[in-house]
Amino acid sequence: MRALVTGGFGFVGRHLSHHLVSCGDDVAVTYQAGEEKADDVSVNQGVALPKSVQTIALDICDRKAVFDVITLLKPDAVYHLAARTFVPDAEKQARDVFEVNLFGTLNILDALVENSPTSRILYVSSAEVYGEPKPGSLPITEDTPLRPISIYGVTKASADLAVHKYAKRENLHGVRIRPFPHLGPGQDERFAISNFAKQIAEIKLGKREPVIKVGNLEARRDYSDVSDIVRGYREALLNGKRGEAYTLCSGKSVEIGEVLQQLIKVSEVDVEIQVDPERLRPVDIPDSYGSYGRAQKDFGWKPRIDLEGTLHSILGYWLENLA
Amino acid sequence: MRALVTGGFGFVGRHLSHHLVSCGDDVAVTYQAGEEKADDVSVNQGVALPKSVQTIALDICDRKAVFDVITLLKPDAVYHLAARTFVPDAEKQARDVFEVNLFGTLNILDALVENSPTSRILYVSSAEVYGEPKPGSLPITEDTPLRPISIYGVTKASADLAVHKYAKRENLHGVRIRPFPHLGPGQDERFAISNFAKQIAEIKLGKREPVIKVGNLEARRDYSDVSDIVRGYREALLNGKRGEAYTLCSGKSVEIGEVLQQLIKVSEVDVEIQVDPERLRPVDIPDSYGSYGRAQKDFGWKPRIDLEGTLHSILGYWLENLA
C-alpha cells in the first residue's frame, strides 16, 4: 500500500513512518522546507526516519504544490499529521494557525477529491477539540460536545468537521482521530514528560545537579504510548467507518506528579523536585481522560503498552542521545 | 442598552432591529458597502429598518475597520449576524466563506477583547452545524454531535466553537445560538417557503397562471417564526449563560408539502402544484427537528407564533409588495 504522511519529520510522523514500513507499506513523507536539517538526528534529537522512506518538501498551504504531489503520487492512504501543534503559540497567531491547520487540510481534501478520489485519508485531530468538558462528562467519548478553550483546539475542530463534510458530501473515505496525549522517544522537550525525562537523564549522566525543575504537577492526564497511537492510525484508516471520529487514549488519567515519580523510580537516581515559578501555568482542566470504546468496537484497537514501558523508552532515548 | 447588529440589512437583521428598538434599545446596524440600495424597500422587497437605527458601512473582514467601529461605539450588546448564508454557493467558494464567517467573527471577538471587554456578544450560529445527525438522535439538542455536511455548516461550527473559546479563555460574555430554519416577511425568495408564498401571491393577484412550481416536498423541517427567533436572541444575550450554546426552534418538524398546503389554504386560491425538475435537489436529511429545552430552562424562551400565523404574515407581505 502506497502511503503518504504529511508532517513526516515530526515526532509522531517519524514513529508512524516506522510502523508503516514495518507493515510493508511504501511510504513517502512530506516536510516543510527548512525542516531538512531536522532530519539530522544529531541536531534534532529525534528518531531517524527509515531509509526506504521518500521525503518530499511541501508547504501544505501551497495549494498548487499540494495538488501536484497528490496527482503525482496518487497514494492509497494519506495520513495527514502536518499542523502547527504547540498550543501556547497559537493564541497569538490565530490566523496563521488556521492557515496551516484548516486551509492546509482543505487543500489536501480538495486535491484528493479532484485527483485521487479513491484514496483514503486519516486526519489527525486532537483531544483538544473537547477542551473543557462539562462537569461529570468523563470519560470523554466521540459524542462529548466540543468545547475547545484554545485556538489550536478550534483549528483542529474546524478541520475535523471539514473531514466529516468531505466524507459525507464528496464521498471521500476520510476518518478522524482525536488522540489524547501520547509519549515516546523523540518528543519535543517543551512537553512536560519529555522534559522531565531529559532532566533525569542529564542527572543520571552526571551532567546536572540532582535537582529537577517542574511546573504544576496536580493535573491528571490520559497518556498513551506513541507506538500504540500510530498503530491505531493505520488500523483506523483500513477499518474505520467512513467519516467517523475515533478517540485513541489509554482510558484512564494519571497525575503528572505521579508520572514524574515513576520516571524517577525507573531511572534509579535520587533527585530533588523543585517547583520553578516560571513553569507554573494556570491549570484549565484538572482532569481529563477518554474512552476508546468506539475504536475497539469498529477496528479492535486497544492500547498495548503501559505507562511504565513508555517511560522506560523515553528515558532510554534521552540517555542514548545525551551520552 | 446600546446594541450593535452586524448584517443589519439582512432578513433577520431587519426583524431583530425592530425588536430591539421596540424594547427601547439604542440600535446601530452594520451593512456591507454596496448593500445601500438594499435598504430601498422597493428594490429589496425587504422590511424597512426603523428610522431611529444608525447604519454603518462595515466590511467585517476589514480587521482595522472592525476595531474602529467597536472602539467608537463600545456597544453593550453585539448581535453578530453578518455572514455568507446561502448554502449552495458556499461549496464552490470555501475560502471566501471562511473569510467572512470565521475570520470576520474573530475580528469582532478580538476587537471586543481589546477595546470593549465588558460588551456581550451573541453569535448567530446555525442548526447546519448538526448536519446529518446519526439515526435515532432526534430531537437535536445542543449536545448532539456536530456532523456538518456543508462548508457553510463547517464555517458556522468553526466560529461557534471560537466563541466558546473566547468566553472561556478571554472571559468574554458570549453566547451561541443555533437556530433552526425561520420564516417571515422579507425573506429571500431563494428559500423554498418564501418562494412558494410569492408564487401564491402572484396567482392571487392575477399576475400568474394558477400553477405553482416546486422542488422536493417530502423533507420534514423545523420552522419557527422570525419574530420568535429575534426575541430569543435578546433574551439569550441578557440571560443566557456565558459561553453556552442554545438551540432555538419550534420543537417539531413538518413536511414541506404540508407547509405548501397550509399556504394554499391560507391564501384561499385554487392552484395546481407542478414539480419543476430544475428545483429537485437530492435530499440529504429527510427529517430534522430540535429541542429548545435549554433555552427554556436558562432564559424562559419558547415559541409563541404557530406556523399558520407565520404563513399569514409571509403571504400578507408578498401580497402587499407585489400589488
Structural overview:
The structure is a homodimer of 323-residue chains. With 323 residues, chain A is an alpha/beta fold. Chain A has two domains: 2-182 and 223-248, Rossmann fold; 188-221 and 253-287 and 306-322, UDP-galactose 4-epimerase, domain 1 (Alpha-Beta Complex). Chain A contains eleven helices and 13 strands. Chain A has helices spanning 11-22, 41-44, 63-73, 87-90, 94-115, 151-169, 192-204, 226-239, 256-267, 293-299, 307-322; strands spanning 2-6, 26-31, 54-57, 77-80, 120-124, 173-179, 182-183, 211-214, 220-221, 224-225, 245-248, 254-255, 272-275. A seven-stranded parallel beta sheet of chain A has the order 3-2-1-4-5-6-11, sandwiched between helices. A two-stranded parallel ribbon of chain A has the order 7-10. In chain A, helix 9 (256-267) packs across helix 11. The radius of gyration of chain A is 19 Å and the shape is globular. The mean pLDDT of chain A is 93. Chains A and B meet through helix 5 and helix 6 of A and helix 5 and helix 6 of B.
What attributes characterize this protein structure?
homodimer; 323 residues; alpha/beta; UDP-galactose 4-epimerase, domain 1; 2 domains; seven-stranded parallel sheet
CATH topology of the largest domain in chain A: Rossmann fold
In quaternary terms, these chains amount to: homodimer
Question: What structural class do you assign from the helix and strand content of chain A?
Answer: alpha/beta
Average pLDDT confidence of chain A is 93
Q: CATH homologous superfamily of the largest domain in chain A - what is it?
A: NAD(P)-binding Rossmann-like Domain
Strand order of the largest sheet of chain A: 3-2-1-4-5-6-11
The overall number of domains of chain A is 2
Just give the CATH class of the largest domain in chain A: Alpha Beta
Biggest interface, chains and residues, is: A-B, 31 and 31 residues
Q: Strand fraction band of chain A?
A: 15-25%
Helix content of chain A: 40-55%
In the CATH hierarchy, the architecture of the largest domain in chain A is 3-Layer(aba) Sandwich
Major pleated sheet of chain A: 7 strands, parallel
Q: How would the global form of chain A be characterised?
A: globular
